[in-house]
Amino acid sequence: MRKEYDFSKGKKNPYAAKLKKQITIRLDDLTINYFKVMAAETGIKYQTLINLYLRDCASHNRKLSMKWLNT
User: Fold this and answer.
1) 47 in a domain, yes or no?
2) Which tens digit of pLDDT belongs to each residue from 5-62?
């Protein structure tokens, strides 16, 4: 393996920008910590785990079921 490579004639992947889109999302600490623990157990980055979970929900057309408590 070389110590240095010359990428001056390299081309950017034209599809790279279409693979994922950067967004800002606000998540609570409990949710972030949950995925960080899963990341430590699996060796997969927590952002990737969140993306995989959301993709699975979307591909299976899962709907959120919530019950509000009367207080």
Assistant:
1) yes
2) 998 999 888 887 778 888 999 999 999 999 999 999 999 999 999 999 999 999 999 9
Q: Which of 44, 46, 25 is nearest to 34 (CA)?
A: 46
Is the CB of residue 50 less than 8 Å from the CB of residue 33? no
Residue 49: domain span: 27-59
- Say how many domains are in the chain: 1
pLDDT at 71 over 70: no
C-alpha pair distances (Å), 28 with each of 3, 11, 35, 68: 43, 39, 11, 19
Residue 70 lies in a domain: no
